[in-house]
Automatic annotation (TrEMBL):
Residue stretches spanning the membrane: 6-26, 149-171, 183-207, 227-250
Pfam families: SUR7
InterPro entries hit by this protein: SUR7/Rim9-like_fungi, SUR7_domain
One cellular-component annotation, GO: cell cortex of cell tip
GO BP terms, alphabetized: fungal-type cell wall organization
Positions in coiled-coil regions: none
UniProt superkingdom: Eukaryota
Protein name: Actin cortical patch SUR7/pH-response regulator pali
Keyword terms: Membrane, Transmembrane, Transmembrane helix
C-alpha cells in the first residue's frame, strides 16, 4: 500500500507520542532514562563541607555517603531517582542510579523529607546548616509541578488518540478522521507546549535559585538538557502535524480513490 500525504501528520504525531511517553515515564523506575532524562538534578555530594559539622568530613572522598544520603537526586515528571557518582576509566564522574521513588501523577519532591529520612542517626539537616530557602523554592513549585504532570498526561493521551485517528485516516481517507486528528493534535500541542514551558522554567530559573541558596552548604543543581530537547521536539513534531492536517482539511482531505480500470468501459457501453 502506497502512503499518501495523509501519512505525514500521522507519522509526526506518532513520533511526538513516543517522545511524550519518554518524558512522562522517565525515571518512573530504575532503567527508564533514570540517570539522563531528568528535569533537574540536585547534587548533594559535597553537602556539609562548608560548616562546622562538615569540617569533620572535609577529607572524605564522598561526604554524602558519610552522612548516609546519596550524591544526587534526579527529579522527573512523576518520580525522582537517587544514586552515587562513580569514576570511569576516562576519569570522568558518571551517575550510578541505585533506585527510584514510586510513580505518581501528583508527584512533588520535598528535599527536607527525603534527606531527613536518609541521614544517619544523630545527624539532622540543622547540623548541616540546611537552607530553608531551598525548601521554600520547592514549596513554591509544588502546585506547578503537579499541574505540569497533569498536562503531560493530557498532552500525551491526546497525541496517542491522534495517532489512531491518523492511522484510520490513512486507511480510509475520511474527512471526519482528518478533522478529528487535527483537533486532537491541537489539544496535544497546547498541553505539551504548556508543560514544556513549565519544565523549562524549572530547569532554567529554578536551578539558578537552588545554586544561589545552596552555595554556602555545598548543594547545587543542574538542568536536564536531554529532557528539554525531547519535550520541545515533541511539541515541534505536533506543530508539523497540525500544519499538515490543516492543509488536508482546507484542501478537502485526501483525494478520493480512483475508479476501477474497467468502469469507464462499462459507462461507454451503456
Amino acid at each position: 500500500m502506497q502512503l499518501g500525504p495523509g501519512a505525514v501528520p500521522t507519522l509526526c504525531t506518532f513520533i511526538a507520542f513516543i517522545l511524550g511517553m519518554l518524558c512522562l515515564f522517565a525515571g518512573s523506575q530504575k532503567g527508564i532514562l533514570d540517570g539522563s532524562a531528568d528535569i533537574l538534578t540536585l547534587n548533594t555530594s559535597r553537602i556539609g563541607q562548608t560548616n562546622s559539622y562538615g569540617a569533620q568530613n572535609s577529607y572524605a572522598s564522598d561526604p554524602a555517603r558519610e552522612l548516609g544520603i546519596y550524591d544526587f537526586y534526579t527529579i522527573h515528571v512523576m518520580a525522582y531517582c537517587e544514586g552515587y557518582f562513580k569514576t570511569v576509566d576516562s576519569g570522568a564522574a558518571v551517575r550510578n542510579v541505585t533506585g527510584c521513588s514510586n510513580r505518581t501523577v501528583l508527584f512533588n519532591f520535598d528535599p527536607t523529607e527525603v534527606l531527613s529520612g536518609e541521614l544517619k542517626d544523630g545527624v539532622n539537616l540543622s547540623d548541616l546548616n540546611w537552607s530553608n530557602a531551598i525548601d521554600d523554592d520547592f514549596q513554591v513549585l509544588s502546585t506547578t509541578t503537579k499541574a505540569m504532570a497533569m498536562l503531560y498526561c493530557i498532552g500525551t493521551g491526546a497525541t496517542g488518540l491522534a495517532v489512531f485517528a491518523g492511522a484510520w485516516l490513512v486507511l480510509t481517507g475520511g474527512r471526519t478522521q482528518a478533522i478529528t486528528e487535527l483537533f486532537l493534535s491541537i489539544l496535544g500541542f497546547i498541553a505539551l507546549g504548556t508543560s514544556s514551558a513549565i519544565a523549562t522554567v524549572m530547569a532554567m530559573k529554578f536551578v539558578d535559585l537552588i545554586n544561589r541558596h545552596g552555595k554556602n552548604i555545598g548543594v547545587s543543581a543542574t538542568r536536564g538538557n536531554k529532557f528539554l530537547g525531547m519535550t520541545w521536539a515533541a511539541v515541534g513534531f505536533l506543530l508539523i502535524a497540525i500544519l499538515s492536517s490543516l492543509l488536508m482539511v482546507v484542501g478537502g482531505g485526501q483525494a478520493a480513490a480512483p475508479p476501477p480500470a474497467d468502469e469507464p468501459a462499462k459507462e461507454a457501453a451503456e
